[in-house]
Amino acid sequence: MDLAALLKALVLGIVQGLTEFLPISSTAHLKLGERLLGYSDPGGFFTVMIQFGSILAVMWLYRDKIIGTITGLPTKPEARRFALLVTIAFIPALIAGFFAADYVKNVLQESLAVIAWAFIVGGVVMLLIERFRPAPTVQTAEETPLLRALGVGMFQTLALIPGISRSGATIIGGLALGLDRRAAAEFSFFLAMPTMAAAFVHDLMEIQTVSLPPQRLAEIGVGFVAAFFAALLVVKPFLDFVSRAGFGPFAWYRIGLGALLLLLVGLGLV
């Protein structure tokens, strides 16, 4: 058993869990982490599975809401409306992913320059939205109007560009469309569930015929558990933090990391 590889898997799982629901792009951080640690993930099997760990974490945190919505569909109008909100917001990503997923995975995700510029542009846009956004008129995710939910879903399609961040795109979209900070973040989490689940199923169908050796299975198991618990720990504190302080700190982090990455690319060090 390669303990060094297991340790790398543990670190990457923690990175995935911590960054998946923050507006700083988990995909970009995983790509950078793999390069820095020298971790090889042929076929992307490891990444697919640990992202599923993050999905399960947020589903566990919001299990009461999920169960209440599903069981209330036959009798409760509010449950049907919330399910419709999430479905409408999910459709643009489903369409965009169907046509562009292979290009994104095989071309854009391999370009560190694309990731760096996406970090910077996303950070600048986040600062501008925080400064000039309209006064919030939607205080909870459940109150989101249908057209605004569709608008948030259209923003989510921007996350196909590595470095933009799925949660960042949806949160920025929510803020621009009049959602309160906490409402925008929570709607982003709910929208993540079908979006990430669909991506997981798509990738799993591509790799289901591949036989993985015991060492790789052990690495996936370690990364999966680490991603689950890291995501479990970060979601609620993140909501409390942005309710108080806003998204400015994440924007400046994105700009700083993007600038550093561009410098390293320019110097030929990565």
What does this entry look like structurally?
- The protein is mainly alpha-helical.
- The protein has one domain.
- It is 77% helix and 0% strand.
- The protein has helices spanning 3-19, 26-37, 45-61, 63-72, 77-106, 112-132, 146-156, 166-176, 181-207, 214-245, 248-266.
- Helix 1 (3-19) packs antiparallel against helix 2 and helix 8 packs antiparallel against helix 9.
- It is globular and about 55 Å long.
- The model has no long low-confidence stretch (mean pLDDT 89).
SSE arrangement:
Elements: H1 3-19, H2 26-37, H3 45-61, H4 63-72, H5 77-106, H6 112-132, H7 146-156, H8 166-176, H9 181-207, H10 214-245, H11 248-266
Helix pairs in contact: 1-2, 1-10, 3-9, 3-10, 4-5, 5-7, 5-9, 6-8, 6-11, 7-8, 8-9, 9-10
